[in-house]
Amino acid sequence: MMTAVAWICGVLLSAAAALAIVRVARGPSILERVLALDVLLMIVVAALCVDMAVNRHTDSLVFVAAACVIGFIGTVTVSRYVTDRRNS
Amino acid sequence: MTGSLDAVLQAVAGVCLVVGCLMSLAAGIGMLRFPDLLSRMHAATKPQVLGLFLLLSAVAIELRSWALVPVLLLAWLLQLLTAPVSAHMVGRAGYRTKHLKRQTLLVDELDQVVARAVQDGPGRDGLAQEGPGQDGMGQGPAGQDVAGRTGGCSAGTGPAGPAAG
């Protein structure tokens, strides 16, 4: 049964990652891009959680805990230095 | 008896995994379909809190170990603490650089606050005591231009932004 769950989760996460990457490529501003990259990081974390649950190991637990902090630092740093470059 | 309990726990873990992945898919669809930055921020928070909670509880159920629970709780609490702060920073930068569609908003309370700050004049310092979210609004030059600045940091602790120089 866990194999079926792994396949379903893989398909769902692949679709989600593809949609997030489309938004990274098309996003009109850097804020949309940083938001979509945050979502992409959460999708990677979700894939690691699925892997840990299906294969019953705890190898990537440290990265799951660290990923929140990494995403936080990146998002705050980028959005702190955003300026309006459009001529409006 | 143990076999049936195992099956039930495995089913619960499987449902948690699939629902957690559905949260990520909802975020992906929302990122693509929603019209502007603020509504996309709404979609992006779905896998950050509830999705991560479901996935981590699935890991805990599947591995059946109490020693794992503090670590998983730490990961979830870190996410719970950092998600609002980063969302606030993105929303603040988006508002100040006008990355939002006015016609999708029902009410804009910050606009009224900025208008009041402009009316009171730039020299007065009374706005800083009124509450959070209004930092730096009274320091800039008068005019609507105040909301567009990215300089003027919260409580003056961080470095000045490039726009302030």
UniProtKB/TrEMBL annotation, chain A:
Predominant subcellular localization, coarse grouping: membrane
Q: Which GO terms describe its molecular function?
A: sodium:proton antiporter activity
**Gene Ontology cellular component list:** plasma membrane
Stretches that traverse the bilayer: 34-54, 61-82
Q: Does the keyword Transmembrane helix apply?
A: yes
Q: How does it sit in the membrane?
A: Multi-pass membrane protein
Keyword hit for Transcription: no
Where does it live in the cell? Answer: Cell membrane
InterPro entries according to UniProt: MrpF/PhaF-like
Keyword set, alphabetical order: Cell membrane, Membrane, Transmembrane, Transmembrane helix, Transport
Q: Which family does it belong to?
A: Belongs to the CPA3 antiporters (TC 2.A.63) subunit F family.
Recorded hits in PANTHER family, A to Z, give: NA(+)/H(+) ANTIPORTER SUBUNIT F1, NA(+)_H(+) ANTIPORTER SUBUNIT F
By what name is this protein known?
Cation:proton antiporter
The top of its lineage is: Bacteria, Bacillati, Actinomycetota, Actinomycetes, Micrococcales
UniProtKB/TrEMBL annotation, chain B:
Q: What Pfam families has UniProt attached to this entry? A: PhaG_MnhG_YufB (PF03334)
TM segment ranges: 12-32, 44-61, 67-91
Amino acid composition bias (Gly residues), ranges on this chain: 149-165
**Per its record, how is this protein called by name?**
Na+/H+ antiporter subunit G
Cite the entry's keywords alphabetically. Answer: Membrane, Transmembrane, Transmembrane helix
Q: Which InterPro entries match?
A: PhaG_MnhG_YufB
Annotated spans, Disordered: 121-165
Q: Which domain of life is it from?
A: Bacteria
Family classification: Belongs to the CPA3 antiporters (TC 2.A.63) subunit G family.
Annotated GO molecular function terms are:
sodium:proton antiporter activity
